[in-house]
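Recap from last week: sequence in, structure out.
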Amino acid sequence: MKARWIVIGAMVALLAASCGSEKGTESKDKGPEGRLYVLNQGDGTMYVYDTKTLEKIDEIETVVSQPHYIEFSPDKQNFYIVTLELTGGHIAKFNANTLEFVDSVSVPVIPSAIAITSDSKYGYVCDFAQSAGTATRVRKYDLTTLQEVNSMQAGEITHDVKITHDGSVVIATNRASDNLTMIYTDEDTVTFVPMTDDDPSTSADFGPMGVVIDHKDSLAFVACLNSQEIRVLDIAARKIVDSISIPIQATGQPAGPTLLAVSPDNDVVFVTTQFANSVVAVRISTHEILADIPLSATGPFGISMSDDGTRVYAACIAPGDAKAHFFVIDGTTYEKIDSVEVGNRNYGLIWQPTDRPLPD
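Predicted structure tokens:
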């Protein structure tokens, strides 16, 4: 695998052609210093962008097929890609400094997300096995050896998994069984939290799809695909304590709140609406929808935010199209700043600060 550097002049011309319809393209600086890592599930590539200029600075083959989700270890030495292969997926390990492939392991699940412990030693992988009525398991991997070391009971069609910043609690969303799996990492003990106390059955009325944890490890915000809302989990109390309606409609169907990012002050949540082609910004304290930001590409899915909260990045799958896009949104004014054409079927992306030089 070789890093391929892109000639800046040619890239500027390409970006001008692909991004000219969005607001703010006349600005030289597109955002804070950092890197955006964009997965293209359809063609097995990852693009890397300078988020200050939105220039593509690298492109690699992911080695594993159908790269779906990316996560960096807290020590920033490695990043991990999981794949959405329906016959069993992979975890792939890369060196974060060189972008070089290190190793991969096949896993007996459909690993749609991975959460990494604060010491960077272990990864918890959920299973998006699309068979309602069959419970899945969250599997724990030693990230040094890429070997499974434990597995814990989860719910049905487990799509997203996050871990508190202190590494003590893992939270996974169970889309078909309408509950959350909470794993306490000291002993890997498990508890389940229903999406409502009124009906703790497994009826899939809510359809929890995505989850994000606030920066205080106090609350988790859950995107509910079926009920068109964000539900709020009190992590210490292990209880849903609030709900916020996201009444955005797609053509003939609910919009489908999907994945989320939370502002540095923990009060504004950004959520992609996969079937309404928008990103919604909502203030948690007042339940106010601050903006419904339309995107000109279809299937917004993955979402990430810069550490300073000034930029939100939304991946658009563009199913059926040869090329997908990601969009750049101002995290304070909620305006679109730019859009960039990427590879085929962009499901996952992540922003990272620039705290080391690029590889030669």
